[in-house]
What does this fold into?
Amino acid sequence: MEGLWSENVLVRMRAADAAEKVTRENPELLRPFKRELLGLMAEATQQEVRWHLAAMVPRLTLNAKERQLAISLLNRYLEDRSSIVRTFALQGLADLAEDDASILSGVIEVLREAMRTGTAAMKARSRKLLVRLEKTNAKS
It folds into this structure.
């Protein structure tokens, strides 16, 4: 995890990739770093770090204030110059929306907009996410 804050761009990139992959199956490993990850998410400028943070932060157990911060940051990531960062931001918002009915309809609208105006990757991801979220929405 320390590598995420390394001075070396390559170390940060590899650390972000490794942390994201390991925590797919073991998200609890992120718990001790929640505050730091939210801070890094707000400050990171390197696209490889940003897209991995967009995937990792929704895996955290967040209180209401932290959740709002994460949503705000992911929405900011939707404006990133990198299509990959924007695509992962869509994924992160969808992941948060699955457990938060208060943002579900707004995230569905963001995904629909991405299907109309996004890059090919954003359109493909949005299609998959909409199927999943519309099922969630129908249950609630």
Observations:
- The mean pLDDT is 95.
